[in-house]
Write a structure and sequence with these properties.
The chain has about 450 residues and is of the alpha+beta class. The protein contains eight helices and 23 strands. It has helices at about 35-40, 55-65, 85-95, 110-125, 140-150, 170-180, 400-410, 415-425, and strands spanning about 10-15, 40-50, 70-75, 100-105, 135, 155-160, 190-200, 205-215, 215-220, 220-225, 235-245, 245-250, 250, 255-260, 275, 285-295, 305-310, 315-325, 335-340, 350-355, 360-370, 440-445, 450-455. Strands 1, 2, 3, 4, 5, 6, 22 and 23 form an eight-stranded mixed β-sheet that branches. Strand 7 (about 190-200) and strand 8 form a beta hairpin.
Length: about 450
Amino acid sequence: MESGRTSSVGNDILGFDHQGKVVNRAEHGSLDWLNICEKSSKVITFIDLAGHERYLKTTVFGMTGHSPHYGMLMIGSNAGIIGMTKEHLGLALALSVPVFVVVTKIDMCPANVLQETLQLLVKVLKSPGCRKVPVIIKSADDVVLSATNFVSERLCPVFQVSNVSGENLNLLKMFLNLLSTRAPSHQDEPAEFQIDDTYSVPGVGTVVSGTTLRGTINLNDILLLGPDPVGHFHPIAIKSIHRKRMPVTKVVGGQTASFSLKKIKRSQIRKGMVLVSQALNPTACWEFEGEILVLHHPTTISTRYQAMVHCGSIRQTASIISMSQDCLRTGDKAGVHFRFMKHPEYVNCGQRLVFREGRTKAVGNITKLVPMTSSVGPGVKVKPVKNMPKQQTTSATSVTNVQNNENQSGTSCNQRRHRGKQGGGRRSGNSITNDGDPESNTLSSKPLTEGGNIKNK
């Protein structure tokens, strides 16, 4: 590692005992995750995201897909506030993630440069686009006051630390220990799990990791995996569950986990797919409507404009079909009808989305879903999917809807099943985690040159 530049999403944990002391440091050697979790009464998960402009899409994916509770913005005191610092701060604001700032390297920074950096930081935080209340943390009383009022999203604590001399690190650790979780667990609702990464583990098979959005998932549960390239969901069994590298028997809403799946290949799973309860009767969609706010665009946005849409762990190009206005410019807000370009996705009303293409950025919420009227989208090539589980396939649309759609197109359900036997399905190419425990938090830290996310257990 020559430059120290982060190019992918990294994870690490920090454990606190019942007295608020850090348990990561062992008397001899180092502690692994298993020992840290056994000795801790509270665990924070840090998700390190990229700070360099080249890896901005990785940072956006980490912020949307991992659903952090909090964001930690890292700023080098000698480098000051640069363009990507404002980009990452704006991303956290757009996703409604509370942010606190850590100014590092104060041991090597001249006093006048440090003062200029702090003055510019306060100016940015108080600007009309941010409207934060910066609080410079200098004592333990400041830590307690800021931690108890931090959930309001208006307060922005600012820490000045040195990793060389250890100055003020005790205040930062105290602040992290006092933070509480923000997201409810929704344990009584049907299970829903979003996949943000896939693995093929020798001797185990296909493994998926992600975040449990709601409900409870137990060992050996049968969930629906999808949508596949034609928008269908397939039953799949959960063979084993791991959390924080430890085997467990169940996970609840808000917690991150890894599942080992039975009888499926890694190539059949992609980021953005979900595991959901059969009680939800899930439906994939090609099109959806959303209300977006254009943060920046060099010219104008009109219909047929295409850009990358980030929504949860989904990352796919979408095209604008129609808008409530003729064109959109920087600062405009409008209702927009989108259509995915590659394959249908499973989304929900109210989900946050980030619309990005080059220097163009827009944020918004999904307001309406348009049910699928056709299994195949424009420009999608049908290829057979090999070795799919032989269990009964559950369509992304109900039987009634399938029949209605087939009647409208003049094709019977029997003919559709006959085509399925001949052509099969289609295959197309293509992680801050939150623990749902009462003491669980997720934090996202994006340094000026090294972005990152934190999650607290």
